[in-house]
Amino acid sequence: MDFDIFVITRNFSLLAEGMLTTLRLTGLALLFGLVWGTILTLARLAPGRLLSALATLYVNGIRAVPLIMVIFWIYFLLPVLSGTQIGPFYSALVAFILFEGAYFSEIIRAGIKSISQGQLRAALSTGMTYLQGMRYVVLPQAFRKMAPVLLTQSIALFQDTSLVYVVGLMDFMTASAMVASRDGRLVELYTFAAFVYLVISLVAASAVRLMEKKFKV
Amino acid sequence: MNYQWQWGVLIREPYLGWLLDGIKWTFAISVVAYAIAMTLGIAVGIARTLENRHARRAAAVYVSLFRSVPLLVQLFLWYFVVPEVLPESLGHWLKRDLTNPEYWTTAVGLGLFMSARIAEQIRAAINACGTGPGNAARAQGMSTAQIYRHILLPVGLRYALPTLTSELLNTFKNSSLALTIGMLELTGQSRQIEAYTFKGIETFTASTVIYILISLIVIFASRHLESMLEIPGMLSSRNKE
To answer: What's the ipTM?
Structure first.
């Protein structure tokens, strides 16, 4: 069979635009996922019984369900709930925030638990509130400890965004698949897509390792 | 929110049959994929802890290759690309003669994807045994194979049991990607029922509940397995919490 490498250069702008969407989705989902994950963790560790039970239920529920399922849920449910179409990008973004938030929360919780209880007690005894103690004493230390795991999870998130293919959002994966079937060049496009994901993930992973070495306490 | 609830669609034919069929395929994919993943994962995980530098290196490359490409892309590679680049007769067999190629592609592709993750868990578990037991066994005159067979694997696999359970759950969840190459497992069937009936909320609720039930069953089964396999006085840390 003939391998037509030029099908990639011919469609370069389409693929590059797709990659931009992939990166934008990854970045925004990462940012808001971390915020949501932190909120969930604070709720789980908070003294209130009800709040922590609800947050735990949410995290365990989300973690029992496939990501594709969550993407479909949001894609079909949000328009029904809000009465308006928000488009595939924002519906995918919401799905990723809700999904990744649960996973980030698990990581953050493990990080906070690794900080000794005495630290929080000392903060409380100096008159800080629970939130202040978390904000100024526990979280700064915990985030440093969990940074490598969070970054590894972010690489997984970057790969997971390829699943927006199921709702037709034009990310890098969907763009590759579209060109592949339109031009009848499945072998070239899917090999190329695999190569691009591979290189980005490997580079990111080795950057994480470097950073880990550098910031080791 | 004006939504016409219609839970009835779930127990009406043919939709109930579709849902049950989806559950059947989710299990069929996950069980075969997990068997492949465990077999290869243990082999590669052992290779990562061997003294031989080349074996360690090859295993590390295997793991990072399979972990750095999204599962969706891997499935597309196995389904669309591999039959084309293989020698013609083999490619023809994959595309034409193999019955249910979508099923086997997902089961094997998912199995390979998961095997890299399991290999990492096995490596960590073997390393967690420390160097003491292995050295002691060697001093007794055991060969490397005997050390793994009698010391490192029986203990290491027990250490790894909780993470192997969550990898089994991941296998179940990841089997949903089969729908992208036209295999209608649980998520795919719910999507199809939604397309026919426009009753997305009911359908997705049903399959979400089924996934949660599967998780609960697996978690309880593995707790039971863990307590059955526990070595008295050895893995007691689990009970401290």
So the answer is: 0.88
